[in-house]
Design goal:
The complex is a heterodimer of chains A (about 550) and B (about 160). With about 550 residues, chain A is an alpha/beta fold. Chain A has 3 domains: about 160 residues, Thiamin diphosphate (ThDP)-binding fold, Pyr/PP domains (Rossmann fold), CATH 3.40.50; about 160 residues, TPP-binding domain (Rossmann fold, 3-Layer(aba) Sandwich); about 170 residues, Rossmann fold (3-Layer(aba) Sandwich). Helix content of chain A is about 40%, strand content about 15%. Chain A has a 6-stranded parallel beta sheet, with helices on both faces. In chain A, β5, α6 and β6 form a beta-alpha-beta unit. The termini of chain A are far apart. Chain B has about 160 residues and is of the alpha+beta class. Chain B is built from 5 helices and 9 strands, in the order βαββαββαββαββα. Chain B starts with a strand and ends with a helix. Classes of the chains: A alpha/beta (about 550), B alpha+beta (about 160). The interface between A and B is medium-sized, with 18 and 19 residues.
C-alpha cells in the first residue's frame, strides 16, 4: 500500500462519497488510487469550483466536503474557494499535490508554497513529509474541519510521499491533540444569567447567524423561541435558521436587510447574538447599537466574542448544545406587547418597489419561484444585486438558503448548487445568479452536464455588474466605470452549446409560465430573466 | 497599554511564521518577540510583548489560543513579571573616554566582553528600562553596532501561587 492508497482508505473511513477536483502530475498517484474505490470523482473545470462544490455538499449534508487538486497553479486556484469556505466556517478537507520532497523550496516547475499561502484562510494546514503520518493527519484533519468553529483544513502531500510505501496502515480510532479541545457545552452559570436576563427583558430579540445551521440547531432554536415567545432576526448567513414566514421571524438585519429588522434590533433591550460575527455588513458601529442594551453573545469560537463589541454575558459553546440546555429551563417572559410593536414596524417599514413593466420585477420573480419550489428545496444565491434580492424576497420553508455571505465570492452559486445537488439528488436545487457571477462559473455548465446534475440556473440578466453600478450610482453620481457587460453572452446559445434546456422570462407576464417550465425540466436548465439594468436594491 | 504574552507552542517548522503572520494580518503590534526551546524539546516558548487598547490585547490572547500549534498562553502586565533583556554593544573608544565608559559599565552592571585597540564590546543583561538607561548614558560615544534580544519574561513567583 502506498501513501495515495492510504489517503483513499482514510477518505473511505470518513464516509466520503465525492471528491471534487482537477488532476495534474503532482496529484496523479491520488487519482490513480481512487479508481479502486467507490468514492465518486467530479472533474470540475477550474479548481476554485472544486472548493465551492465541496462547500455546497458540506452545507447540504453537514458532512465534510473534500476536494483534491494538483500543485502550483492548481493549488493557488483553489485559494479563493478555501477563503470563501473559511469566511463562512464551512468544513472542508482540501488535498493538494506537491512537488517531490527533495525539491521543496527550489522553485521547480509547478511548486507553490501553498501551506504558507493559505495560512490566514485555513483552520489548519499540513505538509506531509512522512508517509506513515498520513492516517493520523487525515483523522486530525477531518476532526478539526468538522468540530468547534468549522472550517477548511489543507493537506499538502508531495508526490514522493504519495508513492512511498506505508508500513502498518491503521486508521486511528481516536486522537489526542493537546492543543485542540473546542468547548461544546455552555457554562451553566452563564446560561442561568442568560435566562435571568430574558426574564427581566421587556424587548428581547435573538439575532441568529450561520452558526445555527452549522451546528444543526434549527429544531432546538425553534422550540426555544416558540416556548418562550421570543422574536428572531437573522444575519445573511442566518437566513433559513427559522422559516421566513414564521410569526416570530422579523427578517434579515444589516445595511442590505429589512428596515424593520434593524429597527427591531436597535429598539430591543436584550439582544442574544447566536453564531454571528457582529460584522460590519450586519451591524454597523456595534458599540453604538449595543450601548443601550444587555448583549448576550453565544459562539463556539471564543475569539468572536468581544471581537467587535463587548458582550454583557459571553457564552462559549455549540449552539445546538446550548439550546438543548436552555430548553430544559422553565422561565416566564412577557413579550406580547413587544411582538405587537414589531409587527407594526413590519407593516410600516416594508419597502415598496416601483417595478418597470418592461422588465421582470426581481421581487415578483423571486417570490413566485419561492412559492412554486419544493418545500425542502435548496436555494443558492450568488453575489451581487441578485444576492440582496434573494435575501429580501426568497421565502425559506423547510429548505436551505446557501450563499457566500462572508467573502462575497462571485461565481459561488453554480458550483455550490452542483455540489448540493450531487449530495442530495432527491432535492430540488436552484442557483440564482446575475450575468456577472454566471460568467465567473460558466465553465461548470460542462461539469453539470457531464454529471447530469438537474440544477436549475436562474440568471437575472441586466447587462451590468449591478451591485457596483448601484454603488457608482449613489457614490459617483452615475459615473459608471468598468461595469458594463455589454449583453454578452447569448444565453440561449450557451444553453444550446451545453445541450441544456433554456427558458426566457422577459417580463412579469412570462414569470408564471417560465417558472413552471423551468421547474418541470428533468435535467439542468438555464433560465434567463431580464431585469431592469437600472434597478436598485435600495 | 503593554502586555506580555508567554506562549508555549509546538516546536514544529513554520510555527513562528504562523504566529508572527497572525500579528501582521490582524494589525497587532509586536514590540518584541523571543523564541527558545523549553525543557521539553517538542515545546518552544515565545515571549511576545505587544501594546494596544484593552480589546486588542484581549483579542491577541484569544487569537493565539485559536492557533492549533499553540499549547498555552499566559499573559501578564510588566509589573507582574520579571523581565530581562540582553544587549551587546560595540563602541569605538579612545584613551580619553575609556575610563568614563568603564565607570558607566560599573554603575550599570555591564561587562566588557571583548576589546581591541580601538573597539570594545559591552554586554548588559537587565530590565528593558535599565538597558535604555545604559543606552542613553553611552549615547555620547560612537556606537558601531548594537544587538538586542528583546524582552524575555516570566511571571513573578508570588503570582504563580495565586
Amino acid at each position: 500500500m502506498n501513501g495515495a492508497d492510504a489517503i483513499i482508505k482514510c477518505l473511505e473511513e470518513e464516509n466520503v462519497k465525492y471528491v471534487f477536483g482537477y488532476p495534474g502530475v503532482a496529484i496523479c498517484p491520488f487519482y490513480n488510487s481512487i479508481l479502486s474505490s467507490d468514492i465518486k470523482t467530479v472533474l470540475v473545470r477550474t479548481e476554485q469550483s472544486a472548493a465551492h462544490a465541496a462547500s455546497g455538499l458540506a452545507r447540504t449534508t453537514g458532512e465534510v466536503g473534500v476536494c483534491a487538486v494538483t500543485s502550483g497553479p492548481g493549488a493557488t486556484n483553489l485559494i479563493t474557494g478555501i477563503a470563501t469556505a473559511f469566511a463562512d466556517s464551512i468544513p472542508l478537507v482540501c488535498i493538494t499535490g506537491q512537488v517531490n520532497s527533495s525539491l521543496l523550496g527550489s522553485d521547480v516547475f509547478q511548486e507553490a508554497d501553498i501551506t504558507g499561502a493559505v495560512e490566514s484562510f485555513v483552520k489548519y494546514s499540513y505538509l506531509v513529509r512522512n508517509v506513515n503520518d498520513i492516517p493520523r493527519i487525515m483523522k486530525e484533519a477531518f476532526h478539526i474541519a468538522s468540530t468547534g468553529r468549522k472550517g477548511p483544513v489543507l493537506i499538502d502531500i508531495p508526490i514522493d510521499v504519495q508513492n512511498a510505501t506505508i508500513k502498518n496502515y491503521k486508521y486511528p480510532d481516536s486522537l489526542s491533540m493537546r492543543t485542540y479541545k473546542p468547548t461544546v457545552k455552555g457554562n451553566y452559570g452563564q446560561l442561568k444569567k442568560l435566562v435571568n436576563a430574558l426574564e427581566k427583558a421587556k424587548k428581547p430579540i435573538i439575532c441568529v447567524g450561520g452558526g445555527i445551521s452549522l451546528s444543526g440547531a434549527n429544531d432546538e432554536l425553534l422550540k426555544f423561541i416558540e416556548k418562550n415567545n421570543i422574536p428572531v432576526v437573522s444575519t445573511m448567513m442566518g437566513i433559513g435558521a427559522v422559516a421566513t414566514k414564521h410569526p416570530l421571524y422579523f427578517g434579515m438585519v444589516g445595511n442590505n436587510g429589512k428596515p424593520y429588522a434593524n429597527k427591531a434590533m436597535n429598539e430591543s433591550d436584550t439582544l442574544v447574538m447566536v453564531g454571528a460575527r457582529v460584522a460590519d455588513r450586519a451591524i454597523n458601529s456595534p458599540d453604538i447599537v449595543m450601548s443601550n442594551k444587555v448583549l448576550i453573545h453565544i459562539d463556539v469560537d471564543p475569539a468572536e466574542i468581544g471581537k467587535n463589541c463587548g458582550p454583557t454575558i459571553p457564552i462559549v459553546g455549540d449552539a445546538k448544545a446550548i439550546f438543548e440546555d436552555l430548553n430544559k429551563e422553565e422561565f416566564k417572559t412577557d413579550t406580547e406587547g413587544w411582538i405587537k410593536e414589531l409587527n407594526q414596524y413590519k407593516t410600516e417599514l416594508e419597502i415598496k418597489r416601483n417595478p418597470d413593466k418592461n422588465f421582470t420585477d426581481p421581487e415578483y420573480f423571486i417570490k413566485t419561484i419561492s412559492d412554486k419550489m419544493d418545500e425542502n428545496a435548496i436555494y443558492v444565491a450568488d453575489v451581487g444585486q441578485n444576492q440582496i434580492w434573494s435575501c429580501s424576497f426568497h421565502e425559506v420553508k423547510k429548505g436551505k438558503f446557501l450563499t457566500s455571505g462572508g467573502m462575497g465570492t462571485m461565481g459561488y452559486s453554480i458550483p455550490a448548487a452542483m455540489g448540493a445537488n450531487l449530495a442530495d439528488s432527491k432535492r430540488q436545487v436552484i442557483a440564482v445568479c446575475g450575468d456577472g457571477s454566471f460568467q465567473m462559473s460558466m465553465c461548470e455548465l460542462a461539469t453539470i452536464k457531464q454529471e447530469n446534475v438537474p440544477v436549475k440556473i436562474v440568471v437575472l440578466k441586466n447587462n451590468f455588474l449591478g451591485m457596483v453600478r448601484e454603488y457608482q450610482h449613489y457614490t459617483y453620481k452615475d459615473n459608471y466605470s468598468v461595469v458594463n457587460l455589454n449583453d454578452y453572452p447569448n444565453l440561449c446559445a450557451i444553453a444550446k452549446a451545453y445541450d441544456m434546456e433554456y427558458v426566457k422570462i422577459a417580463n412579469n407576464d412570462d414569470v408564471l409560465s417560465g417558472i413552471d417550465k423551468l421547474l418541470k425540466t428533468d435535467g439542468p436548465c438555464i433560465c434567463e430573466v431580464l431585469v431592469n439594468p437600472l434597478d436598485l436594491v435600495k | 497599554m503593554k502586555k506580555i504574552y508567554s506562549v508555549l507552542v509546538e516546536n514544529r517548522s513554520g510555527v513562528l511564521s504562523k504566529v508572527s503572520g497572525l500579528f501582521a494580518r490582524r494589525c497587532f503590534n509586536i514590540d518584541s518577540l523571543v523564541v527558545g526551546e523549553t525543557f521539553d524539546p517538542e515545546v518552544s516558548n515565545m515571549t511576545i510583548v505587544s501594546s494596544g487598547d484593552e480589546r486588542t490585547l484581549e483579542q491577541i490572547e484569544k487569537q493565539l489560543n485559536k492557533k492549533l500549534d499553540v499549547i498555552k498562553v499566559k499573559t501578564f502586565k510588566e509589573s507582574q513579571a520579571i523581565s530581562r533583556e540582553l544587549m551587546l554593544i560595540k563602541l569605538k573608544y579612545n584613551k580619553n573616554n575609556r575610563k568614563d565608559i568603564m565607570e558607566i559599565c560599573d554603575i550599570c552592571k555591564a561587562e566588557i566582553v571583548d576589546i581591541s585597540k580601538n573597539h570594545m564590546m559591552i554586554q548588559i543583561c537587565d530590565t528593558p528600562e535599565k538597558i535604555c538607561v545604559f543606552r542613553s548614558m553611552i549615547s555620547g560615544i560612537s556606537v558601531v553596532e548594537v544587538a538586542r534580544t528583546g524582552t524575555l519574561a516570566l511571571p513573578k513567583c508570588s503570582d504563580l501561587e495565586n
